[in-house]
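Input chain follows. Return structure tokens only.
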Amino acid sequence: MPGPSAELVQQLYRIPPDRFVAARDAAVADARRAGDQSTARQLARLRRPTVAAWLVNLLAIRRPELVTDLVQLADALRAAQRELRGPRLRELSAQRRAVVGALVAEIRKLAAAEPDSPPAGRLPLAEVEATLNAAFSDVEVAEQVRAGRLLRAASYAGFGEVPRPQLRLVTDNDEEPEEERPARRPGAQRGRREDVPRTDRAAQRAEQAERAAQRAARAERARQRRALDRELTKAQADQERAEAELAKVTGQERDGVSVLDRIEAELAELERRRAVAEQDLSRAKLARRAAERAVTVARRRAGEVEAAVEALAAEEGDADAGGGAAD
């Protein structure tokens, strides 16, 4: 049976735990309506993760490259921890704490960007940190973290792997027929098997641990380089946007200054024209007053002349009347 797709399961485990059951039941109902009973049964068996497990799953789903780096570093550290002691062991422990701290900070950012996520103050980051530390020591936990389907937080109290049973190294001498072997004293035989092979194993494991530590250091540097490259790309994009915005508002400022200068020039021209018009108006008022005075004088003179004409006419009439009576 094909079962549910990996994308669907991943989508379900990305949902915050308080909405997981409803989303899972809706997916089960969709599968049943489609007639896919096998998928419906497998979906129904999915269990709701705790908040801490959901946060770790969110890291695996949203930032799988970081989880891959964690698993690779965990493999290298587990190989190195079998033989290393003293300062080197403390160095590896500090490196692990730095990586876990960076991943916890990234999980906090992912949770803040996720809708319906619990408030930052209620995130069980201590359980998240314990789970990531457990992934360094437990292969099974590391694989669950990488798959993004963790159901509950994990923890590990020690440093390094859980002790494994010591196995005896089988060499070609162990396969020699008994009759072909020279007689050895029991003490000498134990010394040969314990000293020489064990010394070889120690040297070989020390070399393997050193190579593993170098791989871990390279993986950590590569992770840091990728993170810095992403930060640089983001910073350069922000710089380009800021410079474009600066150029835009600078152009708007220049346009505003030009418009203001033009308006001020127009205002100055209007002020000049207003002054000229006021002068013309003053001269026109003076001319009107002078014309009014001239009209008054002319009217008065005309009245006087008209009165003189009428008086002369009256005198002429009287004279003509007196002459006729004399005749």
